[in-house]
Amino acid sequence: MSTDPLWTSDAMAEAMVATRSGTLPRDVFGISIDSRTLAPGDAYFAIKGDVHDGHDFVAAALNAGAALAVVEKAQRDKFAADAPLLVVDDVLEGLRRLGIAARSRLTAKVIAVTGSVGKTSTKEALRAVLGAQGLTHASVASFNNHWGVPLTLARCPASVDYAVFEIGMNHAGEIEPLVKMVRPHIAIITTVEPVHLEFFSGIEGIADAKSEIFLGLEPGGIAVLNRDNPMFDRLSTNALRANVGRIVTFGADPSADARLLDVALHADCSAVHARIVGHDVTYKVGMPGRHMAMNSLAVLAAAELAGADLALAALAMSQVQPAAGRGARRTLWIGADEAMLIDESYNANPASMAAALGVLGRAEIGLQGRRIAVLGDMLELGPTGPELHRGLVEAVRTHGIDLVFCCGPLMRNLWDALSSGKRGGYAGDAAGLESQVVAALRAGDAVMVKGSLGSRMKTIVTALEKRFPGKAARDDAAV
């Protein structure tokens, strides 16, 4: 529990237009929507999800030490008369109103991040570089949707110096209501790529949907845009139509305001020389890959624009590490020898898949080691899905991938395009591929696992970690 209250129950009631019920504590120290991870002193919001209704867990939350629960009026009678409750017509709407109230009390510089690829890593890099200079609040994991954004806002302390929000979408019209809650001073679009094509007629529609982030910018706000992206002209036109105060660009393009001058790509990091809004900086990025180096330009530009010290921000980039499921690395022990696991299992699209194969292509391997890609379906690509999966064969060749395992009906298209020497194994789903991957791995290998969340590639990551536990896990088991 934080030592400082996040909210008073009175302020929450006023913001949400809630009816008080039972004896309420004066202070609330956190906001939770999950009774399993709730900390004592949190307010528990009984959100209705796709699978569970949070009202079914109110009693558990209160027993776990919740300061109060926010419930809907229609279900109030399920709970004891003296239960500490704030009663609203709709719990999600109550959370949204609390998020708006949280934003209204902020004096922080607020940054919002969207894009087809790199939202979460960019947000996490901003958290690291700004957190080294002031109190910083940022979205947890990928809390970037209709409940994640208001939850992140509601959790934001009034005293922070910087606040960073990730905003996602897979349909048009989803970003606008979220960014109007966040009201950023700076909005970053990392890139626009052919993702979620199932719901759009083309990439231009995706660019327009991402451009909704401009509609919530504070007056005089700044848009940070990828100058190298083919959709730049469309994005910048949309920004001007939205009366954005200033457009700042990043990329390798000679006209970029945050320009990549040189980059040395290494197995587990990158060394970058750049000119950031008029200042020459040389720094190390703790995450490998050219795509990470490019996004670091946006991070440092945003930090400079937010008033942070650019030199300190550049220094902090070396501490930025990939998040779980987004490039995190683990050592696997095969007998007395090592192999490397690169966990990219959280999500995938054609751009991020090609980038991940590039990172695998530079991964260090042992004397007899191989670079192995274990790939699951990329979802929501519509009619272009088969072609986009088959097209990955070029990245496999370019980056010198030795062996490819494929799973899912869409990845069958890549499997059929691979030469026989590149084929490691195929199965219809991740569960069916587990044993093939585990049996194939040997000392010195580097194996990268990636696919859309719905392809459940995390099961293969888990299987590899269980079969070849790292040294720390083996030592714990021995004890």
What would you note in describing this structure?
The chain is of the alpha/beta class. It has 3 domains: 7-90, Udp-n-acetylmuramoylalanyl-d-glutamate--2,6- Diaminopimelate Ligase, Chain: A, domain 1 (3-Layer(aba) Sandwich); 106-319, UDP-N-acetylmuramoyl-L-alanine:D-glutamate ligase (3-Layer(aba) Sandwich), CATH 3.40.1190.10; 328-477, Mur ligase, C-terminal domain (Protein-Tyrosine Phosphatase, Chain A). It is built from 17 helices and 22 strands. Strands 9-10-8-11-12-13-14-15-16 form a 9-stranded mixed β-sheet, sandwiched between helices. The protein has a 6-stranded mixed β-sheet with strand order 17-18-22-19-20-21, sandwiched between helices. Strands 2-7-6-5-4 form a 5-stranded mixed β-sheet. Helix 4 crosses helix 9.
Write a brief structural summary:
With 479 residues, the chain is of the alpha/beta class. It contains 17 helices and 22 strands. Helix 3 packs across helix 5, helix 11 packs parallel to helix 13 and helix 15 (430-440) packs parallel to helix 16.
